[in-house]
Amino acid sequence: MMTTRSRARRLRNHAAGSTSLAMLALTLALNLAAPARSQTTATPPDQARQPDGRPGGQSGERPDERGTDPVGQATSPDTSQAEGEGVSSRDIIVTGSRITTGGFTAPTPTTVIDSSTIAANAQPNVFTTIAQLPSLQGSTGTSVGTFSTSSGTQGLSSFSLRGVGAIRTLTLLDGQRVVGANVTGVPDISLFPQLLIKRVDIVNGGASASYGSDAVGGVVNFITDTRFKGIKGNVQGGITTHGDSEQVLVQLAGGTSLADDRVHVVVSTEYAHDNGVGGGQFGTALAGGRDWFRQSTLINRNVLNDGAPQYLYRDYAQPYNYTKYGLITAGPLQGIAFDQAGNPFQFQYGSGGVPARDAAGNVRGCLPGFCLGGDLSGNVDAGRSLLSRIQRVNSYGRIGYDFAPNGELYATVNISQVKTSNQPVGGQNRPNLTIQCANPFVPALVQTACANAGITNFQYGTSNAALGSSQVYTDRRQYRFVAGAKGRESVAGSDWSYDLYYEHGTNYSNIDVSNILLSRRFNQAINATVLNGAIVCADATARANGCQPLNIFGGNPSAAALGYIMPQNGPMQRTRQTQDVISLNFSGSPFSSWAGPVSIAFGGEFRHEFYRVHADPYGAGFANSPANAAYPADPVLLADGNNWYAGNYKNGSGAYSVKEAFLEADLPIINSDAGGRANISGAVRLTDYSTSGSVWAWKIGGTWDLPVDGLRIRGVTSRDVRAPNLSELFAAPVTTTLPGFFDPFNNVNVLALQNTIGNRNLKPEIARNTTLGIAFSNSQAIPGLSLSVDYYKIKITDVISSLGAGDIVNLCYLKIAPETCGVFNLNNPNGPNYINVQAFNLASILTDGFDIEASYRWQRPLGLPGSLTLRTLATNIRRFITDTGLPGTIPNDTAGVNIGNTPKWKWLATQTYATDDWSLLLQERWFSDGKLGNQYVVCTTGCPASTVNRPTIERNFVPGAFYIDVGGTYNITPAVTAYFKVDNVFDRDPAPSPYFVNPALYDVLGRVYRAGVRFQF
After folding, report:
1. DSSP assignment, residue 575?
2. 721 in a structural domain
3. Domain that includes residue 446, residue range
4. CA within 13 Å, CB half, 689
5. How many CB atoms lie within 10 A of CB 334?
6. pLDDT tens digits for 578-592?
7. DSSP 830-849
8. Banded pLDDT at 93 (limits 50, 70, 90)
9. Of 286, 618, 660, 938, whose CB has the highest number of CB atoms within 10 Å?
């Protein structure tokens, strides 16, 4: 409720209002000298939310004292629930709409996660809590992408709504953009201040008309407590049941007000460290003694029409073209392997396999490329990290000055650093080597066998276990500054809210790879000979430039050889990315219709994005990154780069600017006892990109509170956009040689250069979002119950997708995509033939399904003290169809494909019983059984002919998973709370997969224990 002084001041502001919107800026300037406001008070919202997102217990509020909640339903002004103190309505942050006036109801469904839910989940990173929501599919994190070396996304925590990718999900902090932590433009949630988060709003639907580019799948908005008073902290530790992933989290925040409550200061700092779960051993032994890995493999028989399936799913598959310390893979000596000491022995093939000893390296009794069982010691996949090591250091501060009764100037600073590391695989596998029999490192017994067989060389494969495993280290540092003004003023007799801010963010991303070989040096080092009684590299040029001979038979290479093939300075990349944003937003109700106030919002935004990246000369090429002391020139290496076994980073830079203007309006159309209450809302945004020109985004929708008490219908349809990001526009160039590229125009093979580059002619992706839903909450009929069901459909066209050189030429030759004809020349009289490999707007995505949410709060259940709160969220994906736009392919539906991100059903359920002294939480996470792919035809005998689009397979099933978590709290004192959490109580293992495992769906860690203490004074 408002104090008497607050109401009097509101009346004075109305009376003093100017007569036009043009006077608003002058009014703001004059108010710089206005007296301080007095605090308002408001009842803290009940934690149980109605299905439209509205907190309960607010029915008695005056309309002019209300803001709007994330779905536009009227609520009290933002409050610090811990303190129970109200703040002015200018602090309202609306995620589903830019309209902030009282009484507005937005049609876009929004899920709200409050601070108590975040605390109860007891995760060391709030990202994990949010990523559990069913509508979030395909989010990254420290357990996803750990096998990657060159992607640059290791340890990057970013959200993906609806499975359409992190690049199509807009993540905001207090309604404001955040500088990207990767050239794709996605931020890293690990760099956000987390202890001061008051709630997180997840808008499940397109919001480009309100927020601009990237809001195709929806918006995730982190809202901080800008009026926190006191001191609070959190100390937490954790460990898995396997004794790894040791975690520590220390958080501290403080806030106060000064100068007669006109100056508000909040600060926070936090440190988090997780040791991760490193790579296991070669073979099938995972880290921590985990025993669920089976080296499952999908084996292609390469036979299409013999009545049997083309693809077979098998566990404990053994590749027979390499092993841990070396294996002769073809010819008369096939099957001779080497132990760690370099001694030869007969390799044990699985499936009772017998080497054919032919030039192709076939093994009789085995499937193509694989045997089953036998000696699995050389398999490398078990070496992947299950969870990246991560260290987070974050500092945040905000100062606000109330320059007027309802106006604030503020500034924030966020300085953070996140370091991660991971091991992509075990060893550095090289399966197709040619070794000379005369090589002095070849054991005498094998040299004799060569002579007896009349051969001078043999084919050889090794996991290179003796070289150790590569490690990838990332270091991301974010410097983000925001200055702004927000508040509310009376103009022309009505209240207008304003929000103006400038944001500058810089992100530095460093990637370093250690213990990785230079392929051409490795090839020179293994080609040894004897010169003047000493074993040396056979190539004189290599010897003159420091080549040291490498013994790859067994596990005892010399230190000199290791130093030569794996120099101390490995692949590196240094990226600087900046973002500048100027945003102005205004919202008010200038007049009323027959059904109530008509609300509008309007504003504009300017944004500039820039990146520059440089890499080492061995990866990027000497012309792009000249040789230096850390990376000296070496004629053995390729001058144009690509010399590393993996991690060949490139140089690049680029920038673009965006200018935007938007208008949003809400029109009440029904307001009566007989007809209920209904409104129509719409928005339009014009965006001009410096790279691709102008594009329109819009939305129109409405809500109808039916005469049946508590029943609401809502719907919205929108046109949303995603502009090409810096990486797609200005990709760091890579040049490779294609010696026998087929030219379909002249029916000949030609020598061509493949230039992988960005495409500055890319257009924005266009999406059509539609959501229809119904919600029920009747406090009289069934107190505490809330239900909602929403149907959604997203169709994205002009999807930006990368094409290979062959696809580009064929699309032009077949006259399917004329835009590809201008990016290659295969008959160039003035220079080399070339194909510029780049992305094009060719693909499309279609997905639809249902969101279901239900909650029930029971005060004093069965007469017991306290309350019981039940909540369930579920998402059903009916279709997720991707069409590449390439000739000869058909659209691929991946709904229910459990090796991806989009299971048919996914839900999250929580049950919480809480009293004044303690609480208990039970949580269930589940997703449905699925398939390897919907394109497969399942059969065992009598199979039809297998085709590219409809291949046959023996087994097409991937089980779902059900996990139970439990947690609880105990209030030691009113200010100190102890808590615990156990995730995956029954230590359920992930399902086997022919692609190692899918951490985007399955829990790969096992049971995890966490405990800690929170305090607040």
Report:
1. E
2. no
3. 318-366+437-458
4. 23
5. 22
6. 999 999 999 999 999
7. TS-EEEEE-EEEEEEEEEEE
8. low
9. 618
CB 573 within 8 A of CB 615: yes
Q: Which amino acid is at 575?
A: T
CA pair distance 654, 648, nearest whole angstrom: 20
Identify whether residues 344 and 441 lie together within a single domain. yes
Whether the pLDDT of residue 598 is over 50: the answer is yes
**Distance from C-alpha of 180 to C-alpha of 506, rounded to nearest angstrom:** 8
**Which pairs with CB-CB distance under 8 Å and at least 24 residues apart come from 986-992?**
987/241, 988/961, 988/962, 988/963, 989/290, 989/292, 990/292, 990/961, 991/898, 991/958, 991/959, 991/961, 992/292, 992/293, 992/294, 992/296, 992/315
Strands 407-422 and 471-491: antiparallel
Domain closes at, from 458, 488, 508 = 458
Q: Are 482 and 176 in contact, with CB atoms under 8 Å apart?
A: yes
Task: Tell me the pTM.
Answer: 0.88
- 3-state SS track over 61-91: CCHHHCEECCCCCEECCCEECCCCEECCHHH
The angle formed by the CA atoms of residues 128, 187 and 236, to the nearest 5 degrees, is 35
DSSP 190-208: GGS--TTEEEEEEE-S--H
| Residue 873, H or E segment | strand 867-883
Q: Which residues of 668-703 are buried (b: 16+ CB within 10 A; e: fewer)?
A: bebbeeeebbbbbbbbbbebebebbeebebbbbbbb
Average pLDDT across the chain, whole number = 88
One domain for residues 449 and 558:
no
Quick one: tokens of 407? Answer: 């106006």
Structure tokens at 30: 């004059």
3-class SS of residue 141: coil
CA distance 565 to 593: 77
Q: C-alpha angle with apex 513: 508 to 516, nearest 5 degrees?
A: 165
Q: What was the pLDDT predicted at 64?
A: 30
Burial status of residue 961 (CB atoms within 10 A of its CB: 0-12, 13-18, 19 or more): buried
Does one domain contain both 529 and 446? no
Of 538, 565, 592, the one marking the end of a domain is: 565
Task: Provide the b/e sequence for 906-937 (b: ≥16 CB within 10 Å).
Answer: bbbbbebbbeeeebbbbbebbbbebbbbbbbb
Q: Are residues 448 and 557 in the same domain?
A: no
Do 361 and 441 have their domain in common? yes
Residue 525 lies in a domain: yes
Phi, psi of 129 (to 5 degrees): -60, -45
Do both 342 and 454 map to the same domain? yes
How many whole angstroms separate alpha carbon 934 and alpha carbon 334? Answer: 39
Of 78, 285, 364, whose CA–CA distance to 197 is shortest?
Answer: 78
Residue 947 has pLDDT above 60, yes or no: yes
Q: Are 272 and 248 in contact (CB under 8 A)?
A: yes
79 or 932, which is more confident? 932
Task: List CB contacts of 552: < 8 A, sequence separation 6 or more.
Answer: 326, 433, 441, 460, 462, 464, 466, 526
Phi, psi of 1004 (to 5 degrees): -100, -5
Domain count, the chain: 2
Distances (CA, A) of 397 to 272, 394, 483, 809: 18, 10, 12, 54
d(CA 583, CA 257): 27
Radius of gyration of the chain from its Cα atoms, rounded to whole angstroms: 31
Q: Are residues 325 and 441 in the same domain?
A: yes
Residue 333 belongs to a domain:
yes
Same domain, 447 and 331: yes
Residue 399 lies in a domain: no
